């Protein structure tokens, strides 16, 4: 026979449960709903923080790519002309679209 019962069994019969294992038995439905709503709100907040951080990283990366493209364009325009011909003007794609489609 056991001299004592493990705490997860609720302690020894006839004796009160130890304080660390004591649980509130009468939790109302409203309290359960509030707990779930608060947990959901916290999860949404954390998710939105992650989304904002991702958007910031994408913005920084696109700014970096734009700066690199401007550097490359400047280098391209600085190169001397080849075969004695003038270098054609380098235009962005939007300019070609306006020229082609009016």
UniProtKB/TrEMBL annotation:
Protein's name according to its UniProt entry: Uncharacterized protein
Q: What is the organism field in this record?
A: Popillia japonica (Japanese beetle)
Q: Where is this region: Disordered?
A: 1-23, 71-102
Composition bias of kind Basic and acidic residues appears in 71-90
């Amino acid at each position: 026979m056991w001299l004592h019962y493990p705490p997860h069994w609720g302690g020894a019969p006839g004796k009160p449960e130890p304080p660390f294992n004591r649980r509130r038995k009468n939790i109302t439905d409203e309290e359960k709903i509030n707990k779930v709503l608060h947990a959901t709100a916290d999860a949404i907040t954390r998710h939105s923080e992650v989304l904002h951080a991702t958007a910031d990283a994408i913005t920084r990366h696109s700014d970096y790519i734009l700066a690199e493209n401007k550097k490359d364009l400047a280098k391209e325009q600085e190169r001397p002309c080849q075969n004695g011909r003038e270098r054609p003007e380098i235009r962005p794609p939007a300019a070609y679209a306006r020229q082609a489609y009016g």
